[in-house]
Amino acid sequence: MKVWLASVLLGPPLFWGCLRQLDKDASYTFGDLLNFWAYGILYGLGFSVISFLLFLGGMFYIYRRNWPILQRRTATALLGIVLTIIPFLIFFGTLNFFLPETRIAFCLSYLLPIVAGIFLYRFPTPKKRGIKIDRS
Question: Which domain holds residue 94?
Answer without folding.
Answer: 2-120
